[in-house]
Amino acid sequence: MSLSTIARETCYRVDRLCLVVGLSERHLRRVFEEGLGISPKDWLRKERMVAARSLLREGSAVKEVSSDLGFASPKIFAREFQEFYGVTPTDFQRKDFSFRMIPVA
After folding, report:
1. What is the pLDDT of residues 25-64, one digit of tens each?
2. What element of type H or E holds 104?
3. Quick one: angle between helices 25-35 and 14-21, nearest 10?
4. CA atoms of 55 and 51, how far apart (whole Å)
5. What sign has the CA pseudo-torsion 75, 81, 87, 89?
6. Is the separation of the CB atoms in 44 and 12 below 8 Å?
7. Dihedral of CA 46/30/1/70: which sign?
8. CATH assignment of 3-100?
9. 12 neighbors 47 (Cβ within 8 angstroms)
């Protein structure tokens, strides 16, 4: 099972990740910081944003992505996405989609 799959199955929550891997939150934090240089919370946030980016690129609606990834609301999702990527999910879709529409030849 990939780490991305584990992140998704734990709904991007540290407490659930601890249960899955069988470590205390303190021990998990130490393992992550020593191995990856970031906290489990930051890693889960990154995984969630990567999943969001992928779903948006596939054409999923912002509201659908928000729901699928367990955000409390599309507004909260949009705010977190913008903080992470520097662009709103809607603008990301527009720009990414228009980029893919440019003819190669």
Report:
1. 999 999 999 999 999 999 999 999 999 999 999 999 999 9
2. none
3. 90
4. 6
5. negative
6. yes
7. negative
8. 1.10.10.60
9. yes
- 43 is written with which tokens? 């890693």
Structure tokens at 32: 């992550």
**d(Cα 19, Cα 100) in Å, to the nearest integer?**
41
* Residue that has been written with the tokens 């099972």 in this structure: 1
Q: CA end-to-end span of the chain, whole Å? A: 40
pLDDT at 99: 52
11 contacts: CB under 8 Å, gap ≥ 6: 70
Predicted local confidence at residue 104, as pLDDT? 45
* pTM beyond 0.85, yes or no: no
CA gap 66, 74 in Å, rounded? 5
Query: What's the rounded Cα separation, in Å, for the pair 56 and 99?
Result: 14
